Amino acid sequence: MSEAAQTLDGWYALHDFRSINWAAWKAADDEERAVGLDDLRVFLQSWAETEEAKAGSTAIYSIVGQKADFVIVHLRETLEELNALETEFDKSTFADYTTKTYSYVSVVELSNYLGKGDGTDPRQKPEIMARLQPILPKSKHICFYPMNKKRELADNWYMLSMEERQNLMRSHGLIGRSYAGKVKQIITGSVGLDDWEWGVTLFSDDALQFKKLVYEMRFDEVSARYGEFGSFYVGNLLTLEGFEQLLKL
Ligand code: 76R
């Protein structure tokens, strides 16, 4: 049996994709819509306070295309907190004007492929904790997709030796690092949690950098040979003002 990579796991993640039920929103009167918008303001305020208190992080993006209208990305310490956030949102008046389109449950993950480790507890290191409990950047754009590493007879990631995987990951990391300052990535692990093995969430102020990075990685062996990808979601940062503008009739 090959050696499993060790992971450090951080905050749990919920990517909650919704669409707006425009027929219901348009059928509501001004007063009803005002109640819905108030809900939204209260949610955004409370999520911002959680982030301020460093007890989690939330980012909201519109989604371009027909897969969803917006996504709320929550990072929290526990699955219970994610569950509570989702249910609280579902109970709100605002949620009556939305439909659920997709969701993804995972946990922020760092693996030991490239880190040497100096024998000390990595959780005592502020720079490691900042990566395990990241404040989601409020970049202009987001890109999310789930992925697997292949398990086919000829190309089975999980049957490669630790050393082979380390060598492959080195090249992956080098490409990734060449996008430093342009794309911020958060890798969340989801084996045993959701339908794919990882969620990839990318942030950038220039959406073209998503295409350039993902394209370049396709030529790298880790992705070219072993990557399998789900649906891609791409969108634009939604502030409260942006949300109000979006909902304006
Ligand atoms: O964490 C680190 O910085 C160490 C290097 C590193 C690891 C271990 C790293 C760097 N990644 C790691 C793990 Mn990655 N990554 C992806 C995708 O579309 C594709 O082809 C793949 C989707 C992107 C775009 C990306 C970007 N990475 C992983 C893993 C877990 C693998 C496992 O455990 O088997 C996956 C699934 C994955 C996928 N990666 C980077 C990036 C970028 C931009 C970097 C550089 C990060 C930096 O230096 O800040």
From TrEMBL:
<keyword id="KW-0479">Metal-binding</keyword>
<comment type="pathway">
    <text>Porphyrin-containing compound metabolism; protoheme biosynthesis.</text>
</comment>
<keyword id="KW-0350">Heme biosynthesis</keyword>
<feature type="active site">
    <location>
        <position position="145"/>
    </location>
</feature>
<feature type="binding site">
    <location>
        <position position="131"/>
    </location>
    <ligand>
        <name>Fe-coproporphyrin III</name>
    </ligand>
</feature>
<keyword id="KW-0349">Heme</keyword>
<feature type="binding site">
    <location>
        <position position="223"/>
    </location>
    <ligand>
        <name>Fe-coproporphyrin III</name>
    </ligand>
</feature>
<dbReference type="GO" id="GO:0046872">
    <property type="term" value="F:metal ion binding"/>
</dbReference>
<comment type="function">
    <text>Involved in coproporphyrin-dependent heme b biosynthesis. Catalyzes the decarboxylation of Fe-coproporphyrin III (coproheme) to heme b (protoheme IX), the last step of the pathway. The reaction occurs in a stepwise manner with a three-propionate intermediate.</text>
</comment>
<feature type="binding site">
    <location>
        <begin position="145"/>
        <end position="149"/>
    </location>
    <ligand>
        <name>Fe-coproporphyrin III</name>
    </ligand>
</feature>
<keyword id="KW-0560">Oxidoreductase</keyword>
<dbReference type="GO" id="GO:0016634">
    <property type="term" value="F:oxidoreductase activity, acting on the CH-CH group of donors, oxygen as acceptor"/>
</dbReference>
<keyword id="KW-0408">Iron</keyword>
<dbReference type="InterPro" id="IPR010644">
    <property type="entry name" value="ChdC/CLD"/>
</dbReference>
<dbReference type="Pfam" id="PF06778">
    <property type="entry name" value="Chlor_dismutase"/>
</dbReference>
<comment type="similarity">
    <text>Belongs to the ChdC family. Type 1 subfamily.</text>
</comment>
<feature type="binding site" description="axial binding residue">
    <location>
        <position position="172"/>
    </location>
    <ligand>
        <name>Fe-coproporphyrin III</name>
    </ligand>
</feature>
<dbReference type="InterPro" id="IPR031332">
    <property type="entry name" value="CHDC"/>
</dbReference>
<dbReference type="GO" id="GO:0020037">
    <property type="term" value="F:heme binding"/>
</dbReference>
<dbReference type="GO" id="GO:0004601">
    <property type="term" value="F:peroxidase activity"/>
</dbReference>
<feature type="binding site">
    <location>
        <position position="185"/>
    </location>
    <ligand>
        <name>Fe-coproporphyrin III</name>
    </ligand>
</feature>
<protein>
    <recommendedName>
        <fullName>Coproheme decarboxylase</fullName>
        <ecNumber>1.3.98.5</ecNumber>
    </recommendedName>
</protein>
<dbReference type="GO" id="GO:0006785">
    <property type="term" value="P:heme B biosynthetic process"/>
</dbReference>
<dbReference type="InterPro" id="IPR011008">
    <property type="entry name" value="Dimeric_a/b-barrel"/>
</dbReference>
